[in-house]
Specification:
two-stranded antiparallel sheet, alpha/beta, 38% helix, 16 helices
Amino acid sequence: MVTAANAASSAGELHYLTAAELLVRYGRKTLSPVEVAEAILARIDALNPQLNCFVVVDAERTLRDARSSESRWQRDAPLGSLDGVPVSVKDLLLTEGWPTRKGSLTVPADGPWDDDAPAVARLREHGAVLLGKTSTPEYGHKGTTSSILCGVTRNPWNPDLTPGGSSGGASAAVAGGMGPLALGTDGGGSVRIPSSFTGLFGHKPSYGRVPAWPMSLFGTVANVGPMARTVTDGALLFEVINRPDHRDFHALPPDDTDYRAAALAGAKGLRVAYTPDFGMLHAIDGQELDPAVVKATRDAADALREAGADVQEISLEWPRDPSRIFRLIWIMGAARLADDLSASDYELLDPNLQSFCEAGRKCGLGEYYEAQEGREVLWTWLTEQFRAGPFDVLLGPTMPVLPFKAEQNFPDGWDRNPLAWVPFTPIFNLTRHPAASVNAGFFEGLPVGVQLVGPWYRDQVVFQAAGALERELGLVGRRPPL
């Protein structure tokens, strides 16, 4: 193995190498997992005080795992397809030996912490080097990342601004060069929102494709998904974590799709339906889409056309209001949390989460069944659009706004309705269709993401479109000014 003094593998380069590049260099024995782990831990030491994206860092354990990986690569016996690759884990996912406090004062740190969530278990099976736990708002309840327990997480592109949420710690870490890969969760956009705000690729799978346990407070709208700086790296992580797990009774059968090949397949012959607003202008409470979002989405449609896709503009008219259905499910999930807490613990909750709890407590059984029935109507309708319509993938904005002040829960002017500023992502949590955000441009130094949505069970189409768009736009490699 080479040493850290090797000029070709200087610390200045290591923390921004992709997972795919790391694996090639490990195989050639021109780079050691220990060198990489040391470089990234140094990066975390330097930047985490400013960005506040890691809530648990265990350098001793990380380096121990990196040394084990180095030994395997020296013997040409890697444990799996992520051996030696550093990965962070959002602090909503159980990780054996590390506390999972979910951003909440109501979760004691003393555990015991004896279990891995399914996706974390798959990482260990493939030899990944775990870096630590990344920040989340309390119980992942909002689209920004701050908590009473851990404070405010900040955006590497501008630390005054939010990285989004609720996987904001994960996005800030990856965008800031603190690991090439991260596990996030997405119950209403929590992988896609921060991916848009920090210039990453983030994928919300078809529901059940990535097993999850224990089930989220918010039930079957919640998913576990990969976050990465490139689509190919996202595919690499997705192929590892989408293995079935006996603890999740929603888990889908084994999936042998080559998602990395899908990401490289190109756009030729792909039928893309471009929608400027996903038919959701009624939900944004009188606000308008930021002009940068409008331009980035249109540019993405043009880029896919240039890449060989057949792109047609369409309008969507939903048979039920997705925003109302999602709100009912979200606040009723919050109310379930409130019912499980003692009065003293309830008082420790973020006031924003308490407001969701109180709203959910006012809902009755009839509204619960209304939400479930409406969800089924939306799923059937969208599935029929893919079956009957002349398109393979939908393209539209991920967010209506750019990143805003890190301390705020909402953009300026959007606080009359706490969910109005996230109109485009929760729809596909309701319908269970695969959806991803991919960077489509920059406006005054800030990334702008677009959302790609595919038919249920056909996550590969989303990876295909995202990979083609990424290559056509040529934005990979731009780094925050840290």
